[in-house]
């Protein structure tokens, strides 16, 4: 979820000309907002089995992302394949550019769909789009159609990955913050980023 930073952080110069009373009221509001954020992170009422499930989802998602990371190197892998098809340098760089163009999508999604209840559908839709895009791209690659069709498929794949990667990460970090206690959160992060590099090495072999 997108939260506005405290006013004193966003516009520090505006505090110079406030009265003591206004500054006190502002600090009270900021303290209340910070306390609300703290409550979200510490007061987790989910049962232990649901917290374990959330922890497992986060660990598996990040581990799989590490393992298939070479496929998501849009600017390297896609460019090399398109270059091998005899396309120009501008065409080879197109998937990377499209990937960058799609990066603001998670910000827009978080802006318009701010309800925590939308996290699960957004996460499921992101995985579905990634899976379909990967299957279609692999099918076109091994079917051996014309180079033009493969070029178009790779550009479309780059666009889908660019739009869904950030959305998946946003949902995962919200799951981490809202779906488990701080103690389980710390354990989840230890396991996730302890195993992650191992999966990255295995995926690169």
Give a nutshell description of this structure:
This protein is mostly helical and 205 residues long. It has 9 helices and no strands.
Element layout with pairings:
Layout: H1 7-10, H2 20-42, H3 48-67, H4 74-84, H5 89-101, H6 105-112, H7 119-143, H8 147-178, H9 182-204
Helix pairs in contact: 3-8, 3-9, 4-5, 5-8, 6-8, 7-8
Structural features, described:
The protein has 205 residues and is mostly helical. The chain is built from nine helices and no strands. 19% of the residues are buried. About 15% of the residues have low confidence.
Structural class: mainly alpha
Backbone shape: elongated
Mean pLDDT: 77
* Count of individual helical segments: 9
Poorly predicted regions: 5-28, 35-41
What characterizes the major β-sheet? none
Helix content: over 70%
Q: SSE order, as H and E?
A: HHHHHHHHH
The number of E-state strands comes to 0
Q: Report how far apart the termini are.
A: 37 Å
Calculate Rg over CA atoms.
22 Å
User: How much strand?
Assistant: under 5%
Jot down its keywords.
78% helix, 205 residues, elongated, mainly alpha
């Amino acid at each position: 979820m997108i939260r506005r930073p405290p006013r004193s952080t966003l516009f520090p110069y505006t505090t110079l000309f406030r009265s003591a009373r206004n500054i006190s009221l502002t600090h009270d509001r900021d303290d209340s907002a910070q306390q609300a954020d703290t409550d979200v992170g510490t007061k987790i009422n989910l049962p232990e089995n649901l917290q374990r499930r959330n922890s497992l989802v986060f660990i598996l998602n990040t581990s799989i992302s590490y393992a298939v990371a070479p496929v998501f190197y849009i600017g390297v892998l896609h460019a090399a394949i398109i270059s091998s098809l005899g396309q120009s340098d501008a065409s080879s760089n197109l998937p990377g550019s499209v990937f960058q163009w799609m990066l603001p999508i998670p910000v827009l999604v978080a802006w318009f769909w701010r309800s925590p209840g939308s996290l699960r559908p957004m996460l499921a839709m992101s995985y579905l789009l990634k899976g379909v895009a990967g299957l279609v791209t692999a099918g076109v690659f091994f079917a051996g159609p014309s180079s033009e069709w493969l070029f178009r498929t790779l550009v479309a794949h780059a666009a889908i990955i660019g739009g869904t990667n950030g959305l998946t990460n946003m949902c995962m970090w919200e799951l981490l913050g809202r779906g488990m206690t701080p103690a389980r959160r710390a354990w989840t992060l230890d396991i996730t980023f302890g195993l992650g590099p191992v999966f990255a090495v295995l995926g690169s072999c």
